Structure prediction request, 219 residues.
Amino acid sequence: MNILLVEDDVALANALVKTLTHEGFVVNHLKHGQQAINVVKTEPTDIVILDLGLPDIDGLDVLRAIRQHTAQLPVLILTARSSIDDKVSGLDLGADDYLAKPFEVDELLARLRVVERRSSSSKHAGLQIGDVELDTACYGLSVANEAVDISRREFTLLKALMENAGRVLTRESLESKLYSWNEEVASNTIEVHIHHLRKKLPKGFIKTLRGVGYIVKPA
Prediction:
């Protein structure tokens, strides 16, 4: 899952990036609301964690702008504003969840897992193509009803391809789902992940369009 963290408290943001990355999430951090609005409109993002007390514009205005652009992108508000009125305002404007500071990291992780399951379920009730099936709740892969070991990044890569079955995904678009902006990515990284995946999947399941990208054909 690709997370956009919008938080102006640098110390808190750094701690969250470290924790969420350790949990297998891809995290990009911004301090300003207008930057977040621009990124949501131009970069692939799976969920936004949004502080309300931002230095340039109010977080609720950021939420309003996000909802004007898309109704599907999950937004979790993470803020020191803990009054009932603040929570009602955030939820009424379209936030999917609201967590007040201070908070326990375990609770944040649990809420992210809920949002992730809900998002995957709303997009695809079951990701299955032929004999290949992904369990989006448990990060599991089975081929011909046999469980297959798969890493978190391999799962994320295969999930993107299966969700977009019939469409070619470029190497750059796949990299954005697996790595944050500040991570150095070797030129052949996606090719290596694809190579490992192909060993676990039926022959020809992932096809290469040279110079373009990769595609999984629908069943």
Observations:
- Helices lie at 10-22, 33-42, 59-69, 84-92, 105-123, 152-163, 171-178, 189-200.
- The chain has a mean pLDDT of 90.
